[in-house]
Specification:
With about 425 residues, the protein is α+β, with helices and mostly antiparallel strands. The chain has ten helices and twelve strands. The strands form three sheets. The chain has a five-stranded antiparallel beta sheet. Helix 2 packs across helix 3.
């Protein structure tokens, strides 16, 4: 998406075949690698006098180095502005700047470009830093003024000029806004010249930054420079669910990343038969439901069985072409099930798990065993004895019980009950 010459045409959605990795480094918005730095110019050629200067966030402009200053990437320079001057950082110089001019500004006229005055001194750098420190407070105050006036707009960012004489307010609005009174109030309160500039939702997300649903920084705030239109047809080609909550990004618009893999899907789908062709069989007519690009399968269902939620038949593109050719010849297969391919089920090798090294939770199991408290063992041994007591085996019960008259030697004799209040040692009279 960083280049304008790598998109697909022909009525299909535009994608990006560079995927943010252009060989020229054009997709990197803020960082630029000068791959021609070690190459000297041919004899008789002078260095290109156009320099790219970067300001706050991603704002860049081309300026003419009319005084032939020895500029390098990262130098803080003072450039012409209307009115006064502005301070920026040099991002591209030399032949790389010529490539950037051809790519970003085809109609650029070098003689009409503004000039670089000088390299910034320490006083100008301090003033520039002071201007940056005032932007947040001024933005909050300007939002308060807009709310008090009842304007349906959102001021998302403020950029001060390097000489503190002018401030540009970036805002988003759904409709046209009459902010004439707002400009007067801001000029009276801040004592500066005010410029209002309307931007879109994507430009707002680019300036503010954030984290996307993928967990990484937003593409628009890191490397994406130009915004291509994204349509829902890009999601249809990729067999994605048309859920607005899943397809929308931080800006509320369709995600720019829907175009990244679109060209690959379009090239792959060309090898598949068209999904609008019905397959005629003796059982009935079947229509196309979905296409799995990764598994190379096309899913069909018979008419009247789609509501049941069952009866989906997966066919390979070769089988679908074969059935279509048969239908053109006036032939009909018996059923589509006959053309399904039986995939071999992978059978895991049989082996005994001796040490438990194939288990992913083996360490958790060992940890749980350590946490279990051991129950204390009952020990009836007398104190001071170290040898374990030998337990005598119990005598087996006799099958035939003894007669009532024969005393049982193993039966314990019951002690007589003692009477209350007396001694039971003497026999009763």
């Amino acid at each position: 998406m960083g280049c304008s010459n790598c998109s697909s045409g022909g009525g299909t959605p535009r994608g990006c075949k560079n995927n943010g990795t252009c060989s020229s480094g054009g997709c990197n918005k803020l960082e630029v690698f000068d791959w021609l730095a070690n190459i000297s110019l041919p004899q008789g050629h002078s260095e290109y006098d156009i320099v790219e200067v970067r300001f706050k966030n991603s704002r860049k402009n081309f300026y003419r180095n009319s005084k032939s200053l020895a500029l390098h990437v990262g130098d803080i320079v003072v450039v012409e502005a209307s009115p006064g001057y502005d301070v920026g950082v040099v991002s591209v110089t030399g032949e790389i700047a010529k490539i950037q001019v051809k790519k970003k500004a085809p109609g650029f006229k070098p003689m009409e470009a503004r000039k670089i005055t000088r390299v910034a001194v320490q006083e100008e750098v301090d003033k520039w830093i002071q201007a940056r420190s005032l932007e947040k407070e001024v933005m909050y105050k300007s939002r308060t003024l807009a709310v008090n006036l009842g304007l349906e707009m959102k001021i998302s960012d403020v950029e001060y000029q390097g000489d503190l004489s002018k401030a540009t307010f970036y805002y988003t609005a759904d409709s046209r806004v009459d902010f004439r009174q707002l400009i007067k109030d801001m000029a009276d309160q801040f004592k500066i010249r005010v410029e209002m500039r309307q931007i879109g939702s994507r430009q707002e997300a680019s300036r503010l930054g954030g984290i996307g649903s993928c967990g990484r920084e937003l593409c628009c705030s890191t490397w994406l420079t130009d915004f291509r239109s994204v349509s829902t047809s890009a999601a249809r080609y990729q067999q994605l669910s048309l859920n607005p909550q899943k397809l929308a990004g931080q800006c509320g618009k369709l995600k720019c990343c829907l175009n990244y893999e679109l060209d690959m899907y379009l090239d792959t789908i060309k090898s598949f038969p068209k999904g609008d062709t019905r397959l005629q069989t003796e059982k009935g007519s079947a229509h196309h439901i979905k296409t799995d690009v990764f598994k190379a399968q096309m899913w069909y269902v018979y008419d009247g069985e789609a509501g049941a939620g069952s009866g989906l038949i997966a066919l390979s593109p070769e089988r679908v072409r074969e059935i279509i050719q048969m239908n053109k010849e006036g032939k009909k297969p018996k059923e589509l099930v006959e053309y399904t391919e039986q995939k071999e089920v992978f059978k895991e090798p049989d082996y005994s798990n001796v040490v438990g090294q194939d288990s992913l939770n083996r360490f958790e199991h060992a940890f749980k065993l350590k946490k279990k408290k051991k129950k204390p063992r009952r020990d009836n041994r007398p104190e001071g004895s170290s040898a374990p007591q030998q337990v005598e085996p119990r005598a087996p019960r006799a099958e035939n019980p003894q007669p009532s008259g024969t005393p049982n030697p193993n039966k314990k004799k019951r002690r007589p009950n003692r009477k209350k209040g007396g001694n039971n040692n003497n026999p009763a009279e």
